[in-house]
Each structure stands twice: as structure tokens, then as C-alpha cells.
């Protein structure tokens, strides 16, 4: 059983119960008085009738309705959620019962039979509250009846009737309590089952949506990777001397990233950033890219624009796919730690990590593969150049990792694509 009481709810219940009791008492009293005192056969004089109506009809109604009016005023000063309202309302209800019994104790059984079952059914949630209502009404009626005096008719008829009525009320209260408790329990179980069913249905729907989103994400990722590879192939189609360069830079960058303990997601993004680091060369004249021999100063300045062209091409693309750092490698892979690189002259840690990694990988592959202006360099010279550029051209930590990779590559296999 619940012991928590919604005071605002009980306030409404008790006020309605009081009104029902007061109206019931008035209607019954009026009917009985008219049946008893008005007929000529009863032999009452007009003065006796007037006194009877004042004594049994007017005064009780003044008491009942006066109590309800006083109650309405007092309730304005008691907070609606206060338990004090409950006890004040019960007191007024008891006063109505006592007033009724004091005037006509034969109404006791009728009044209690009508009101207490209603109250006990409504108040089943709290036995203690139910007992208080019964005691207040019962004791009040008993006291009022005793004050009037116990005549022979009361002892022989009214008391047995009252005992029977109260016995029935107790049985009704217990049965109502049990039945309603069972119904509430079954209802709660049904609601719980419905909630679980809705939760399962919601989870299934959510899982379906997540599965669809995952499949769509995988499809978009596949398309993205295919587009990246297509762009990389387009770059190499324009450069007869650097076939496989982008893939080797991507692979070397991936190897360096693993030594730096990057996450799998970061390694994947770094690989594709390395694959597209030279994508800006698509916008460079192929005559400059494929020229035999050294480039003129003017041609070299044109070639130096490819980082910005690549950044412009990839920046918009990066906003709509899962790889947000593709443009980083394209724009800043020619920056230097001493700030003398291009296109922005960024120094030290202001150069993004991906760009610093790709810079080392790009320089290594440039030295270990055939270019338009020279042949492949020996491994020892490549190592010396990397070491020479530590802290000036290359990030020292990343450069030393590259040197460690060179030292591990005793057969000089890192001049070709590593699978």
C-alpha cells in the first residue's frame, strides 16, 4: 500500500464529500419533517410545527452550511499541499455527521451507509487515513446520540441497525481494499509490460536506423576512398616521373603515424591525406611537371603554387566527408620547422602534425625515387640529408623515426611501394 498522499487530491475529494453530506441531510430532513409535522392527522399546532422546523431543519442547516462557509475562508490561509487541510476537512465532515445524529439519530445508519463506503473506496490507498475517517464519524455520532438520551426505541432498533451497518461497512472496506489492490497491481503489471514492449520496439527501430546509417556511412566512405584514389591517379597521369609517388608517400606517412601511436582512424585519414598531398598539381601545366632538366625560376614559382591549389580543391571536399584533414597535408607539406617553407612560412608546432609527417615522407620518397631533375640517391646519403634537416626542415621527432626506419631497412626496400 502506498503511504504517500496527494493532499490536493484529498482536498477535492473531502470537499465534495462534505457537500454531498450537507445536501443529503437537508433533503432528508426536509422530506421527513414535511411527512411528520405537516399532516393534520398528526395533531401538531402551527406553533409546534414552527418550533419543530426551526429545531430540526433550520438550525442544523445553519450549522452545516455555516461550517462549510467558514471552512472555505480558512482553507485560503492553509497551503493546498499542506497535510493540515486534510485534517481540517475531516473535522468539518465529522461535525456534519454529529449534527445530523444529534438531531435525528435514525439518520445515522442511513448517512453512514451512504458516505463511508464512498470514502473507504476512495481512500483505499491509505488504511490509516481510512480508519481516521471512520472513527471521527462513528465516535461523533455515538457521542451525539448519548447526549440526546437513549430511549427504548433507540436501544431496540437503532443500535442493532447501526451495528449491522458498521459490520457491513468493515467487510465492504476490506473487500474493496483487496479487490482494488489486485486491480491496481494487475494494471501496473500491464503498464510495465506495455512499457517493456514499447522499449523493445523502440530499441529495434533504433537498431534498424543505426544499421541503415552505418550501411550508408560505409557506402559513402567507400565512395570517398574511390574518389580520393581517382584524384591521386589523375595527378600521376600528368607526371611521367612520379608514378607511384603519392602511394609511397601515403604508405611512409602511415608507417610514421603508427610509430607515433596514432589511432586507427587517424592513421586512415593520414594515409589518404598523404595520397592527395600533391593533388594541386592537377592545376599546373604538364609541360612544367614533365620538363626534362631543371626548372627555371619562373617555372619553379608556378610549381610552388600547387599547395594552395590543392588546399582550395580539398577544403570544400573535407567539409562533407569523414576525413576533415585532407587539405592540411596538401597545403602545408612544404613548410619547414625554421619557418622558411611555403606557402605560409609557418614555424615549428604551428605546422599541423599531419603536414609535418607528410613533409618527411615526401622528402624521403623524393630522394629515393627517380625525378625529372635527378636519379635515385643512395640510402646513406638519404639518411644524411634527413639527419641534416632535423629541427630546421623536419620535425626532429618525426625525422628521427624516419632515420630509424632507414636503419631497419638494411636491404633498401623503401624505395619502392611497400604493401
Give a structural overview.
The protein is built from 15 helices and no strands. By secondary structure, the protein is mainly alpha-helical. α1 packs antiparallel against α2 and α7 (245-259) packs antiparallel against α8. It starts with 6 loop residues before the first helix and ends in an 11-residue tail after the last helix. The relative contact order is 0.06. The mean pLDDT is 76.
Oligomer: single chain
* Integer average pLDDT: 76
As a percent range, the share of strand residues is: under 5%
SSE order in H/E notation?
A: HHHHHHHHHHHHHHH
Largest sheet, if any? none
Helix-strand category: mainly alpha
Q: Show unreliable segments.
A: none
As a whole number of angstroms, the C-alpha radius of gyration is: 49 Å
Distance between the termini: 72 Å
Number of E-type strands? 0
**Tally of helical runs:** 15
Helix content: over 70%
Q: Which word captures the global form?
A: rod-shaped
Secondary-structure map with pairings?
Elements: H1 7-37, H2 46-75, H3 83-103, H4 107-122, H5 127-148, H6 152-237, H7 245-259, H8 264-275, H9 286-289, H10 297-303, H11 306-319, H12 326-332, H13 353-367, H14 379-388, H15 396-408
Helix pairs in contact: 1-2, 1-3, 1-4, 2-3, 3-5, 4-5, 4-6, 7-8, 7-13, 8-12, 11-12, 12-13, 14-15
